[in-house]
Amino acid sequence: MADVPFNNNTAQKYGENTGQKKREFEAFFRLTYERLCSFAFGYVNSREEAEGIVQSTFLNVWEQKDLWDDFESAKAYMFKSVRNRALNYKKHERVKQESEPEIQLRMKEWKGYQDSDTLIARKVEVIRNGIRELPERRREIFKMSREHGLTYREIADALDISIKTVETQIGRSLKYLRSYVADHNFIMILVMLISI
Predict the structure, then answer these.
(1) Domain of residue 163, CATH code
(2) Is the pLDDT of residue 19 over 60?
(3) What is the extent of the structural domain holding 157?
């Protein structure tokens, strides 16, 4: 935004008479508001956006009211500021439109990851429930193998059973869990379809 034109003597010129400054500003506002809105509308093609641009520019001018020399410099500043803000608005809108497909794609990807995380969490829960339903001794052998990473020999030695028994119990556990997960995956898919 352009620098605000001002004169070091302006504050002295107006003294402490803020009431006078307010009346002058209100008159300035009434004289220029509609013209500035029409001017901004020519850039942004939206009455609402044009008014917002003009209002924010007037707010900026009001905040710097003690710096103004005269009506003509303020008017020139207003038109230049409104033009710059309108052009910035158009540039911002163009960037938003150009990036919208990318944003939509990223949102779909994020939702996919979120859905994927939810699906994985549900599958893990189904597997845990299946493990809980294994007979106690089979569950113990399975956990020693899968959760604690023990070899079949280590499990056999720890439980004082044969390696063949460990292999059989792990095989039965896996067969049961495959069946359990398949049955529950079907139910999970139905629940997900219903929730869509």
Answers:
(1) 1.10.10.10
(2) yes
(3) 100-195
